[in-house]
Amino acid sequence: MGLTLAQKIIKEHLVSGEMIPGEEIALKIDQTLTQDATGTMAYLEFETMGVPRVKTELSVAYIDHNTLQSGFENADDHRFIQSMAKKYGLYFSRPGNGICHQVHLERFGKPGKTLIGSDSHTPTGGGIGMLAMGAGGLDVAVAMGGGAYYITMPKMYKVNLTGKLHDFVTAKDVSLEILRILSVKGGVGAIIEWGGEGVKTLSVPERATITNMGTELGATTSIFPSDEITKAFLEAQGRGEDYIELRSDEDAVYDKVIDIDLSELKPLIACPHSPDNVVTVESLNGTKVDQVCIGSCTNSSLYDMLKAAALLRGKTIDPSVSLSVSPGSKQVLSMLADCGALTHILASGARLLECACGPCIGMGFSPNSGGVSLRTFNRNFEGRSGTADGQVYLVSPETAVAAALTGEITDPRMLGDMPQVSMPEKFKIDDSAVIPPADEETAKTLEILRGPNIKPFPDSIPQGDTLRAELVLKVGDNITTDHIMPAGAKILPYRSNIPYLSRFCFGVCDETFPERAKAAGQSIIVGGNNYGQGSSREHAALVPLYLGLRAVVAKSFARIHAANLINAGIMPLTFKNPDDYDSLSQSDMLSIKNVYEGMDSGNLVLTDEKTGKDIQLVCSFTDRQKAILKAGGLLKYVGQGGGL
User: Fold this and answer.
1) What is the pLDDT at residue 457?
2) Cα torsion for 377, 380, 384, 386, to the nearest 10°?
3) With the C-alpha atoms ordered 96, 371, 274, 196, is the resulting torsion angle positive or negative?
């Protein structure tokens, strides 16, 4: 029996475990990346481990999230990260150089390599045949220290593409189609491989859009073969030597196969407030639009920007619409300027934003109250834009331009002929904004620069054999990390200050949560399906830890968040009978006895002390995860000799 593309890379990097779906495996990690919203904490964690130098082939620290410097906090974090990178052997991508995933694809990603990043959209690297996965900052810190990355061996899904996309139908529409088919939890526990004859019609930027959006499926990662199209992209980036051919075996076996005929797709749109709430654009024709945003790590490539510029050329956006354009990297912006495309964008009335995440993470350019905002981004969670009642839709750049020009949702096929845009034979190479690390001897003399907003990692508590705690919050399905620990310009500057950040925890769901959780001392949260979907931000575990959270009981969990909870020393537990969710009420006093025995058997009993009802819970912790929980989190586990 042959191997899938992902299985080949896993086999090449397997440190321990068996490649059996559901079994824990450990992988050697070749590359890591961080961004500044999660990076400060990751480097504090790395520093705690006492490793003198990163041990990966390549690690890069990017500044792309917290670029709005309205106070000292973000600038201090940037300075701290830069000093850490210089001392410990990382490359440092300066503010303005671009979004981590776009820059990494352009300048650092290599087919066949493993990459983990403290950002959930790290699977973008799968567009050039990397096994690229989002992870918590602590997992990234361990990998930088030479430790393995532990995951549950995923199932293998295959999306078989046939045909070719019509004009005005894009890779974004392919992403929305698979979300419509599978939903935001349909990829949990799986790696999604894209193949078939239709793959040959997709450029690397288009493939990267699809692997980026695969994160919204809950998938471990997504991956494309490394082929002649990959080779041409790497050669155009001056990195032809990084190319290797990679593809699955003809007789590879998949757990699920999905067929998509590209020629049958229409322009699609995800409606508020979930990426899988997908309908055709034409079904919403005429809906008034207030704001349009083109950019983010999903659709900010040169290819995307050139198409937008060509459609805007000689035209002016509707007076009632505000349009922003955020190129994904300095390379993209520079090449737009050199070829004149930037002039067409600006002449249309668009506002040029920094080469950064910007509006996607709620860092500026929020819509008006109740405003309809069409965005080429990957997430449209409620409140994520920075406007609590903003109505955010996810679209392709072509659909975004159509709305900007007409002032309403418009099928882009109504714009006439699509201008022909092609990929350049050579990209403009300028890595002057990437600062290399100091040599090892110089590094020993360097000082780490810390600002007053940088606070220590919160202390965790070893899991005892008995837990008694109040149910301080009960929430529903698809609770995102944005619900748990919101982003945005007002909050992101405090990512390195857990005590201050705790004031905003679960503020979207219940503004009284932080105060009640602290008063309870120890607490339990109850959730529905897909608890913790979305970003990889470990703050969604660390802040509740600081507030006393000891366990989360849910119907099901998103992969990265469950791992982050364990790393923080918090137990993620699942209802054996999902209907038992209905019997629990906020403020109930709950208890779990014989925790250690229950961890070993995979079965625990939760007792509601008010009613006396026993509720059956299940868990599937590995021996390593049990040891981490008993130690009080991954940092303490490593500190006690658990090893990297």
Assistant:
1) 78
2) 80
3) negative
**Between β-strands 603-608 and 589-592, what pairing exists: parallel, antiparallel or unpaired?**
antiparallel
Q: What is the DSSP letter of 166?
A: P
Tens digits of residue pLDDT in 366-404: 999 999 999 999 999 998 998 999 999 999 999 999 999
The torsion of the CA quartet 30, 34, 38, 39, rounded to 10 degrees, works out to 100
Q: Taking the model in full, what pTM does it have?
A: 0.93
Return the sign of the alpha-carbon dihedral for residues 511, 512, 515, 518. Answer: negative
Rg of the chain, C-alpha, whole Å: 24
In this prediction, residue 456 carries a pLDDT of 81
Among 247, 4, 13, which residue's Cα sits nearest to residue 116?
A: 13
Encode pLDDT of 151-205 as tens digits: 999 999 999 999 999 999 999 999 999 999 999 999 999 999 999 999 999 999 9
* The pLDDT of residue 461 is above 90: no
> What is the pLDDT, as a whole number, of residue 640?
83
Any alpha helices (H) in 247-388, and if so which ranges?
302-312, 330-339, 341-347
Residue 319, exposed/middle/buried by CB under 10 A (0-12, 13-18, 19+)?
exposed
Q: What is the DSSP letter of 640?
A: I
Distance separating alpha carbons of residues 329 and 296, to the nearest angstrom: 10
Other CB atoms within a 10 A radius of the CB of residue 577 amount to: 12
Question: What mean pLDDT comes out for the span 25-32?
Answer: 98
Distances (CA, A) of 378 to 214, 276, 520, 609: 9, 10, 37, 43
Q: At 75, is the secondary structure helix, strand, or coil?
A: helix
Q: Which of 359, 372, 370 is nearest to 293 (CA)?
A: 359
H or E element that contains 5: helix 5-13
Minimal CA–CA distance to 433: which of 30, 78, 19? 78
Name the token pair of 397: 């750049």
